[in-house]
Design goal:
This protein has 363 residues and is α/β, with parallel strands linked by helices. The protein is built from 15 helices and eleven strands.
């Protein structure tokens, strides 16, 4: 009986291996990403690949198309915006600033040269500067503070930053499907999916499931569109009302963990509150979820900055209360315009002039 069982297992493995070989020979691929179903903020899912620790990252060495805004975004080897490759070893006599963030740091809706990271580097290296600065854009669309913390701890800290900036909030406040970011990462199933996605047999099964899901959706009269938020809320029964991707306490803990890591590894942290354009009325507030939730995250960040004695750039007050609608993109209350990016760069320049932002040493 045991021998029969072993033969059966061996037969299954052989069939699987042959199927895998045939599918690879015919170059069959199917990448049905479920990022949008798990993370409402996972923008540009088709340009992303799953990651076991921070859920997804942009595919390296590609050009992303943004038809809505008529722009393209070049991505480097590490999956971040820009063509410049990052060297793990800092150039001599260079102070390196690493900017963590979401699509606002990434520069969604603006040219790369208009991003606040590029503008900040130019301002810091103006004629007469006493030292050289390098500013790295580590913003990724859809990222929460949890993802920022994870990618810094696991990867980016090895690039020897002297200063790390923290610009998160909107995606933290997004509604979560079934699990918060922290709980999502604890699921072994997610890590297993990352591994299985590399198998062509598994991709074939995903393709067949996708066909079935679309058929069911048509029968129910639902348009199956990965970019349709309402559709995902219908398809995913695990949506839990009131659950957000990162709670206020978790948001503070993520920022505090980054500050603690900085004290161990010798970099300082500059916290940025999250700016937004104030909608004209209550109905507009509701349409622009999660805008009404963002101020509470910024309030907690101010408290943390005071408790930990770290610099804070209060972008919420500087941009949101400037009464200048041109600091944000048209019909977009979140993403800064080129003018808004310039203001962010100016505010960070002032913060970096503070000795606390550049003079920290390891404990």
């Amino acid at each position: 009986r045991r021998r029969k069982a072993l033969f059966a297992v061996a037969a299954v493995l052989i069939v699987f291996a042959l199927a895998e070989a045939v599918l690879r020979a015919f170059d069959f691929t199917f990448a049905l990403t479920d990022l949008r179903s798990r993370f409402p903020g996972a923008a540009f899912a088709r340009y992303s690949q799953k990651h076991p620790d921070w859920f997804w990252e942009l595919k390296p060495l590609m050009v992303m198309g943004d038809d809505r805004r008529g722009l393209t975004y070049e991505i480097n080897r590490l999956g971040f915006r820009g063509v410049r490759e990052w060297l793990p070893k800092k150039p001599k006599d260079t102070l390196r600033v690493l900017c963590l963030g979401d699509s606002c740091t990434f520069g969604l809706g603006v040219r790369f040269e208009d991003c606040y990271t590029v503008r900040l580097e130019a301002l810091l290296n103006a004629p007469g500067a006493s030292r050289r600065f390098e500013v790295l854009n580590a913003g990724s669309p859809g990222y929460s503070s949890y993802q920022g913390w994870r990618i810094l701890e696991k990867q980016l800290v090895d690039f020897e930053p002297d200063v790390v900036t923290f610009y998160f909030g909107k995606n933290d406040a997004e509604a979560a499907f079934a699990y918060s970011d922290k709980d999502q990462n604890a699921l072994r199933a997610f890590r297993l999916r990352v591994a299985l996605d590399k198998s062509r047999v598994y991709q074939l099964c995903s393709w067949l499931v996708a066909i079935e899901m679309r058929a069911v959706a048509r029968i129910r009269g639902v348009t199956y569109r990965a970019t349709d938020e309402k559709t995902w809320q219908q398809v995913n029964k695990g949506l839990r009302p009131g659950l957000v991707r990162v709670s206020h306490d978790e948001f503070v803990e993520n920022a505090r963990s980054i500050i603690a890591l900085g004290r161990r590894r010798g970099f300082n942290v500059v916290l940025l509150t999250y700016p937004y354009a104030t909608p004209p009325d209550e109905e507009a507030w509701r349409r622009h979820h999660p805008l009404p939730l963002i101020p509470a995250y910024s309030a907690r960040l101010r408290e943390l900055a005071e408790q930990e004695n770290v610099p804070l750039v209060d972008l919420e007050r500087v941009l949101a209360r400037s009464n200048d609608p041109t600091v944000f993109l048209k019909r977009d209350p979140i993403h800064p315009s080129p003018k808004g990016h310039e203001l962010v760069a100016q505010q960070l320049l002032q913060a970096l002039a503070d000795g606390r932002a550049t003079g920290q040493r390891r404990e």
